[in-house]
Amino acid sequence: SCMNMTSDTAIITIMDTVAPAFTIPDNIDTVQCGDIYDLVFPTPANDNCDGQVLIKSNIYTIDSGTCINNVRYKTVLEFSATDACGNTDTLRDTIVHIDTMAPVITCPFETISLECGDPIPPLYTILDSFLANGGIAEDCCIDSASFFGTESSEMAGGMVTITQKYFISDCCGH
Predict the structure, then answer these.
(1) What's the pLDDT at 29?
(2) ∠ CA(153), CA(126), CA(138), 5° rounding?
(3) What's the whole-model pTM score?
(4) Model confidence over 92-109: pLDDT tens digits?
(5) How far apart are alpha carbons 49 and 20 in whole angstroms?
(6) Residues of the chain predicted below pLDDT 70
């Protein structure tokens, strides 16, 4: 009864080289500048070893400073899921903000009637003055340097009619 025994050791190494998996739903890819839109949220991230893992998000804007093809800027929604072994999956949803609409401009007043000797409202030559006196200029990217006004007058039947017109463009040239 000799108890001759022998042993051997096996080492099993489990490697995790697979990143967590998740998806983001389809979203609106293009919106008119200034429009409100819904953000997308990803499905839960599942990992083959760790189960459900945390998703981190980051939102940033890419502004080209120009307006090529009516694209004003882009909003990028970035989602990343990382498991315990450092495997990462990153998905991005990019929303393109376009500007295809001309700015809206409204004079500080429509029509006024004055008596002789009453002060005539000035022709505004600077956008800030125009706005401060009740004018409105709306767009997602007003080009304030493009603002100008013209004035003309016409006399008929003992009455002078003065017409002031104001013009403005946006950053995309509308």
Answers:
(1) 87
(2) 95
(3) 0.70
(4) 999 999 999 999 999 998
(5) 9
(6) 1
